[in-house]
TrEMBL record:
Protein name: DNA topoisomerase (ATP-hydrolyzing)
The reaction(s) this protein catalyses: ATP-dependent breakage, passage and rejoining of double-stranded DNA
Gene Ontology molecular function, alphabetical: ATP binding; DNA binding; DNA topoisomerase type II (double strand cut, ATP-hydrolyzing) activity
Pfam families assigned to the protein according to its UniProt record, in alphabetical order: TOPRIM_C
Gene Ontology annotations of biological process type: DNA topological change; resolution of meiotic recombination intermediates; sister chromatid segregation
Cofactor(s), by name: Mg(2+)
Isomerase as UniProt keyword: yes
Coiled coil: none
Annotated PANTHER family: DNA TOPOISOMERASE 2, DNA TOPOISOMERASE/GYRASE
Alphabetical keyword list: ATP-binding, DNA-binding, Isomerase, Nucleotide-binding, Topoisomerase
Cellular component GO terms held in the UniProt record: nucleus
Record carries keyword Thylakoid: no
EC nos: 5.6.2.2
């Protein structure tokens, strides 16, 4: 099924015939020439063993191989033609929301959620940093056809910016060394980051496997110095609690502010965010990693329910 997903039941019925040898008591026929048996049978009269079905579906069986030949002749050619057409659409797309980097060497593309989140970017960025502005939550692309995805202007523009092509590893054409997701640290921000990751995993897994996709963490608590000191940034409540226990005398030198998202950052905070990066690097090593992403983003909810009811934990590694 996974190898020949476009194959229909009619395709199989047209190409496959199964002959059986039966011993029947008191057979009846539709004519004297005995060409067609007219005895009535139920499903219980024909017992097919698991061994027979396994051998029938084996990839080395003649039936399977004949279906592969048929599939390649009928569907793969059509699928390639459609993919080439969609890739041409991507190549012809021009983005209106791209802020380009001034320097191409070791360049970074930051993906931001809306204008407010990117408001301080132009003033605080380095010359090798550019950004693309997303409009809220992107599509969940996991179960969508490629044609459906490209109906969305943001997806088309993002693919064009990264020079991505369906069905191809275009690493040599990738204009950036880092693709950095810059979303808020709240639940919406985590969700958007997950949707972006799932989109890459589903259609362009190489870009994750080869280490190009990151997420930038923004501080949830910032210590604003009252005078003469540098900003203090804390990326978790635990990190702040540890610092507080060990620096009681320093507490009075700062005003501590809880972050309200990237749009609320001062210029100094934004500069630290861009230049002293705290990054999560996403990787995929095997089929289990892909299955984990599929679990959370496919339409089917049954497998998710099982995991959510268990004591499973997700572990993040930061760089």
């Amino acid at each position: 099924k996974n190898d020949m997903k476009l194959l229909t039941l009619k395709d199989v019925e047209d190409k496959v015939s199964i002959f059986t040898n039966l011993s029947i008591g008191n057979p009846t026929y539709n004519s004297q020439t005995k060409e067609e048996l007219t005895n009535k049978f139920t499903k219980n009269d024909l017992v097919i063993t698991d061994k027979f079905l396994t051998e029938l579906c084996d990839k080395d069986s003649l039936i399977y191989q004949s279906l592969v030949i048929f599939y390649e002749a009928k569907y793969l050619k059509e699928e390639k033609k459609l993919t080439d057409k969609l890739n041409k659409v991507i190549r012809g797309t021009i983005s209106t929301k791209l802020i380009k980097a001034s320097v191409n060497k070791d360049s970074e593309i930051w993906l931001f959620e809306g204008l407010s989140a990117s408001s301080g970017f132009r003033n605080a960025r380095a010359l090798n940093q550019g950004c693309y502005l997303l409009r809220g939550k992107i599509l969940n692309c996991w179960d969508l056809e490629k044609t459906q995805i490209l109906e969305n202007i943001e997806m088309r523009e993002l693919y064009a910016i990264l020079k991505l092509q369906f069905g191809k590893d275009t690493e040599k054409d990738l204009p950036f060394k880092f693709v950095i997701i810059g979303t808020d640290q709240d639940q919406d921000g985590v969700h958007i980051a997950g949707l972006i990751l799932a989109m890459f995993a589903r259609h362009f897994p190489w870009i994750i496997r080869k280490g190009y996709i990151y997420r930038a963490l923004s501080p949830i608590i910032t210590g604003m110095p009252k005078k003469g000191k540098e900003l203090l940034n804390f990326y978790s409540q635990e990190e702040f609690n540890i610092w507080e226990r060990n620096n009681k005398k320093e507490m009075s030198n700062y005003n501590f502010v809880y972050g309200k998202g990237l749009g609320s950052m001062t210029n100094d905070q934004y500069k630290v965010f861009l230049q002293q990066q705290r990054l999560i690097k996403f990787t995929m090593h095997d089929a289990k990693d892909m299955e984990s992403i599929q679990l959370w983003f496919q339409k089917s909810t049954e497998a998710r329910k099982v995991v959510m009811m268990s004591d499973s934990q997700i572990i993040y590694e930061t760089e």
